[in-house]
């Protein structure tokens, strides 16, 4: 059954300290913090940026997620005495004890975070978050922030792709908990796949903690645990309306089974009694939510017949059965046959409830098989996806990085021999340019001190894809992408629950032209540097900038 | 630096309830539990088995991990009032209120768990765990147990493969936290990759919580944050032995830099002053643990020269530098050049410390690049692996399943149209047969009531790979693979810490013949059913067994 959750406590700070203690970081963050402290630079104002270098899954877009957890993490960031004692045991014995006092007193009251809102469509190399504050502190935050953004954004983007592949009408159910990277991985997956466009999750805790609607009915083990109709208790059911005399539902069902077999020309001898017992006991427990899995033995020879018999008996008592689940074989082909039988029963026995039964399909669905399913004729209303959704089989990591761009108001740049690994220096502002049709067409990365681009005014910029040539564009509308999210130890924007962020995802995807949303070989979206930023990059690269730092003399 | 952790609290039950609350399960477990309860079958004794169908990564073996967390989960399994209230909001309104009282009183005091010890080499289709107890309870445990075993075993097996690919001498460092499936995924990865054969982790929390040795030194951001030698403070260092007068380490290093440039014929003009400042400040903070990353600009033109200069200055003051890290480009080629320069310095300046410097390599290492690295000439002593290790790129899920095999002492079997998805019925015992050379050669799955196979006595069995033909084998030794692990609410075996389980992994891998450990196209290991079990399967399949459950009459 699919029951929308009544709990919407997705905003609570529950267990963020438990999930992301400050020691959940790479040791080098701590060793660097000490070296900064030792040389007296730990309080220097520094700015880091978080971004990724390529859209995942060969796609044309990414969804930014994980921000809310980052904000809660910043708010709770503090080393306990126990943490500090452990660090003392790990760092070299000669480490100055005053450093540990410094660590004990640290928090994020000096940290400012500007970010693109969670659930926004974003692109490679656009800085999603800017983290500014004392050098040692913002360095210490790196690994945790990356960990919180990387998987959340990846799995949210994956869900959005499955959503696109499935088409708008089909409902999507996430059921990957057992295949995720452990318990918290599973919970994170359920939360962010819902945000990315899935309708339900099988994960009860995700319903409890984040208000994601939960769904689920029965496994094969329930079916195979029954062998005989003797095991069905109670054996009666009371009709919804009218007569309150308990009806022998077993007898009623057996009668319907005969008629169904006759209608379909099926052999009763191939029908599993245990399966019928399982369906009956389930229907007695859930007369208004009957949706069994019908492929434990054979859909055509047993499961479908047993379902129809029990469902017809329920209908006779004025209950409304929900449907069936198929969990193996060719889902499309089977769904057509199942629907044909439902229609036949509806006509032959005049039960209109059989016209609106739901067919759920679950069987190792990939993005590709989802897309194929959307193209082939079939009657599947709800698709359940597990492994390939939560583990992101196509590309199991996003590869976000966190790079230093400014220290003491002076821009910093990593010039790598691999040009893709070079960073863009300086503190920035990011604008999204919208065309006359309302489609986003270019993200412009500027220096923060520059005047923002204006609607209707031509702006020159340098697309990152081609390193030298300048282009001019005229936006119909300009959106400033990043907002202040955290300052002076406080979260400065209202936190959204999963439902709100989910709506944000869909509206943000709406602004993107379909050509960028094609799952295969999409047109790439343009990200460009402003002229001033491009000049700064060129100057630093030439070593001719004022920030030259070559050792010219010994 | 690499500091073995002083904390070995891997056995604590900390946060297992927080990590794996009883609601962290698929909704259908709860809906089935109610249906069992409603039909009065919830207390029936039932047995489930947990196993996987294929070794991961196309390999010949798997390592079983996650058991300890399963045991702690069983011990703490209990619904709170809040949990039950949430379930009440999700289940249909007509659900009998007495069911929620039943849930509130549930625990695992009636559950027995037999399992193969954690860290053992295991194979596809061998039941790793047998969970026996009241039907409704053991059904409710399914998702959580799968979630705890699936990723732990997968990433542990992946680590063991990287360990085999790397060869025995090289040290391995795990640094995947930022790319894992969220915080707990990262922590799980650090714990089980250590168990699988990695030596260190960068993850401090894994050191704190599980006693995994932690390691790490500096990132590129540390280097790029410096521009000038002016930023180095203090500018002096005191020699280890003898004279306590502070020495001007900057001056000393500049002198060494001149000599190094002269020795190598390098141009001082290409040396980054910021990088030198970063190295110097780091060396002053960690004079006994100096190991910088040397590729921020150019290894040959800047990083290596700066390292040698600082390290030679340290040596002059009787400190012992540790080595360097390479993080981009062709690691093998660069390591050879770096080693050549170290040897040259050692000879030319008579500093023996340069003979034992460590070279760490980290750059998007895959299993394949690790294997190539092991075949090519290189001088890398420590390899750091992140993304491909923790996300298991090659195959990001193991696919463990949990299947019902017995109810009320009667065997149960799922007969699927897909033969691989059929299950093996009945309660079992599992024996590992060892040959005269001490190598495991066959895992025998028997019915629990059968006499165990004996050393030196021929035993007939049916390998699972070929469905019909019988083979006879004579074991030199027989090991009973599974042990009682949990009964009457208590864990009945001593829990092992990560170090102990890590040793178990290596000794278990030792018993496996190398032909099964080949990373590509290994010989497959034989798993076989006993004659009696094979007969039972055949009977049930034919529908001719005593447990026939076809509906023969309406």
UniProtKB/TrEMBL annotation, chains A, B:
<keyword id="KW-0597">Phosphoprotein</keyword>
<dbReference type="GO" id="GO:0016740">
    <property type="term" value="F:transferase activity"/>
</dbReference>
<feature type="domain" description="Nicotinate phosphoribosyltransferase N-terminal">
    <location>
        <begin position="23"/>
        <end position="150"/>
    </location>
</feature>
<dbReference type="Pfam" id="PF17956">
    <property type="entry name" value="NAPRTase_C"/>
</dbReference>
<dbReference type="InterPro" id="IPR040727">
    <property type="entry name" value="NAPRTase_N"/>
</dbReference>
<dbReference type="InterPro" id="IPR041619">
    <property type="entry name" value="NAPRTase_C"/>
</dbReference>
<comment type="function">
    <text>Catalyzes the first step in the biosynthesis of NAD from nicotinic acid, the ATP-dependent synthesis of beta-nicotinate D-ribonucleotide from nicotinate and 5-phospho-D-ribose 1-phosphate. Helps prevent cellular oxidative stress via its role in NAD biosynthesis.</text>
</comment>
<comment type="pathway">
    <text>Cofactor biosynthesis; NAD(+) biosynthesis; nicotinate D-ribonucleotide from nicotinate: step 1/1.</text>
</comment>
<keyword id="KW-0662">Pyridine nucleotide biosynthesis</keyword>
<keyword id="KW-0808">Transferase</keyword>
<keyword id="KW-0436">Ligase</keyword>
<protein>
    <recommendedName>
        <fullName>Nicotinate phosphoribosyltransferase</fullName>
        <ecNumber>6.3.4.21</ecNumber>
    </recommendedName>
</protein>
<dbReference type="GO" id="GO:0009435">
    <property type="term" value="P:NAD+ biosynthetic process"/>
</dbReference>
<comment type="similarity">
    <text>Belongs to the NAPRTase family.</text>
</comment>
<feature type="domain" description="Nicotinate phosphoribosyltransferase C-terminal">
    <location>
        <begin position="427"/>
        <end position="536"/>
    </location>
</feature>
<dbReference type="InterPro" id="IPR007229">
    <property type="entry name" value="Nic_PRibTrfase-Fam"/>
</dbReference>
<dbReference type="GO" id="GO:0004516">
    <property type="term" value="F:nicotinate phosphoribosyltransferase activity"/>
</dbReference>
<dbReference type="InterPro" id="IPR006405">
    <property type="entry name" value="Nic_PRibTrfase_pncB"/>
</dbReference>
<dbReference type="Pfam" id="PF17767">
    <property type="entry name" value="NAPRTase_N"/>
</dbReference>
<dbReference type="InterPro" id="IPR013785">
    <property type="entry name" value="Aldolase_TIM"/>
</dbReference>
<dbReference type="InterPro" id="IPR036068">
    <property type="entry name" value="Nicotinate_pribotase-like_C"/>
</dbReference>
């Amino acid at each position: 059954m699919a029951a929308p959750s009544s709990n919407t406590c997705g905003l609570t700070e529950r267990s963020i300290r438990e999930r992301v203690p400050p020691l959940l970081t790479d040791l080098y963050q701590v060793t660097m913090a000490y070296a900064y402290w030792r040389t007296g630079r730990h309080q220097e104002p520094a700015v880091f940026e978080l971004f990724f270098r390529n859209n995942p899954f060969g796609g044309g877009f990414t969804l930014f997620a994980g921000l809310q957890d980052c904000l809660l993490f910043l708010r709770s960031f503090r080393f306990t005495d126990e943490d500090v004692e452990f660090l003392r045991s790990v760092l070299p014995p000669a480490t100055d004890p005053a450093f540990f006092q410094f660590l004990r007193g640290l928090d994020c009251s000096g940290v400012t975070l500007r970010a693109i809102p969670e659930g926004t469509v974003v692109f490679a190399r656009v800085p999603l978050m800017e983290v500014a504050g004392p050098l040692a502190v913002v360095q210490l935050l790196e690994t945790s922030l990356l960990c919180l953004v990387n998987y959340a954004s990846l799995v949210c983007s994956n869900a959005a792709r499955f959503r696109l592949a499935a088409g708008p009408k089909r409902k999507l159910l996430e059921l990957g908990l057992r295949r995720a990277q452990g318990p918290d991985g599973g919970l994170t997956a359920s939360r962010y796949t819902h945000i990315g466009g899935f309708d339900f999750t099988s994960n009860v805790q995700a319903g409890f903690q984040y208000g994601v609607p939960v769904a689920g009915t029965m496994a094969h083990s329930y079916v195979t645990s029954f062998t005989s109709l003797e095991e069905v208790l109670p054996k009666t059911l009371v009709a919804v309306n009218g007569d309150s005399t308990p009806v022998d539902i077993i007898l009623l069902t057996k009668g319907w089974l005969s008629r169904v077999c006759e209608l379909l020309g099926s052999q009763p001898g191939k029908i599993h009694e245990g399966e019928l017992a399982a369906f009956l006991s389930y229907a007695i427990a859930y007369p208004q939510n009957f949706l069994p899995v019908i492929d434990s033995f054979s859909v055509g020879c047993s499961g479908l017949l047993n379902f129809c018999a029990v469902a017809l008996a329920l209908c006779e008592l004025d209950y409304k059965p929900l449907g069936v689940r198929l969990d193996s074989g060719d889902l499309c082909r089977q769904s057509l046959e199942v629907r044909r039988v439902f229609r036949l029963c509806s006509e032959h026995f005049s039960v209109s409830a059989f016209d609106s039964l739901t067919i759920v399909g679950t069987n190792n669905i990939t993005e590709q098989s989802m897309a194929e399913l959307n193209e082939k004729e079939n009657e599947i209303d709800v698709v359940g996806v597990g492994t390939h959704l939560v583990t992101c089989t196509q590309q199991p990591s996003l590869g976000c990085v966190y790079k230093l761009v400014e220290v003491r108001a002076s821009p910093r740049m990593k010039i790598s021999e691999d040009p893709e690994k070079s960073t863009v220096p300086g503190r920035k502002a990011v604008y999204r340019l919208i065309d006359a049709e309302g489609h986003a067409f270019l993200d412009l990365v500027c220096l923060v001190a520059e005047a923002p681009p204006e609607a209707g005014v031509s702006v020159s910029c340098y697309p990152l894809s081609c390193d030298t040539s300048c282009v001019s564009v005229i936006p119909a509308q300009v959106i400033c992408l990043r907002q202040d999210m955290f300052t002076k130890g406080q979260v400065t924007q209202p936190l959204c629950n999963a439902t709100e962020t989910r709506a944000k995802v869909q509206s943000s995807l709406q602004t993107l032209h379909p050509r960028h949303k094609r799952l295969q070989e999409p047109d790439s979206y343009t990200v460009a540097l402003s002229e001033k930023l491009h000049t700064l990059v060129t100057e630093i690269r030439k070593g001719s900038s004022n920030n030259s730092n070559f050792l010219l003399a010994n």
